[in-house]
Amino acid sequence: SKSVTFTCSNRPLYPISGNTTQPALDGSSPRIVLQQPFVYFGKQYNQIYVNHNGHMTFNNPWSMYIPQRFPMYSTWDIIAPFWTDFDNRQTGLVYYKQYTSGNILNQATEDINNHFPQLNFTASWVFVATWHEMPYWQQENSRTTVQAVLISGGQSSFVLMNYGNISPNKWNIQVRALFRLNSNVNVPGRWAFRLDHGSRGCTFNGKTTSTAPMDPLSHGYLH
User: Fold this and answer.
1) DSSP 70
2) Which pLDDT belongs to residue 76?
3) Which tens digits make up the pLDDT trace of 68-89?
4) What is the CA radius of gyration of the chain?
5) How many CB atoms lie within 10 A of CB 13?
6) Which member of 101, 162, 170, 186 has the greatest number of CB atoms within 10 A?
7) Where are the alpha helices (DSSP H) in the chain?
8) How far apart (Å, rounded) are the C-alpha atoms in residues 205 and 215?
9) 53: how many CB neighbours lie within 10 A of its CB?
10) Per residue in 116-139, pLDDT tens?
11) Type and span of the H or E element at 2
12) What is this structure's pTM?
């Protein structure tokens, strides 16, 4: 991997910077040791993998490119902002970076308190993974940018799923509008969920949902 910085002021995306993975079909990052533990539905994790096909896993890398409906692979904990078949062998990069100080923590603190106003939250750790201008397999002219921002402070943990440009694909032509133009926090292109407690689902404003962000045909999942 290499360390790079890509300046992006287009909300809802956080800055795109950090290490990049080795381009590969169905590839993954190396094991990433977390600088602070991340609590995921009551389970504490100290490592993560950013997989090329739009998802992250905690115990091992994973190459699966076909989105699964629930219930699925109950032994796998997975965060998938855009689970699809990416191919970045020619273009497109997967970035990841951790933060424990600085402006990103301030931004995360402000965002979580805006999205979850009943909390008095202070972020102590942020992990940003970005799939930047990724083409779909056998659609080399497509370019899709999506992002997962893991945020924790104390025993509370959250994910922001941020959507930049989404290219239509041959499997779901409506996906661009569904992700990029909608939101559950009134920020078009952003979906926010609390992850630290409760059942195997995600909570928003005290209500539990089983999938994120939308319907069973969409590609965003928490499990």
Assistant:
1) S
2) 76
3) 665 555 577 889 898 888 999 9
4) 16
5) 22
6) 162
7) 103-115, 175-180
8) 19
9) 26
10) 999 999 999 999 999 999 999 988
11) strand 2-6
12) 0.84
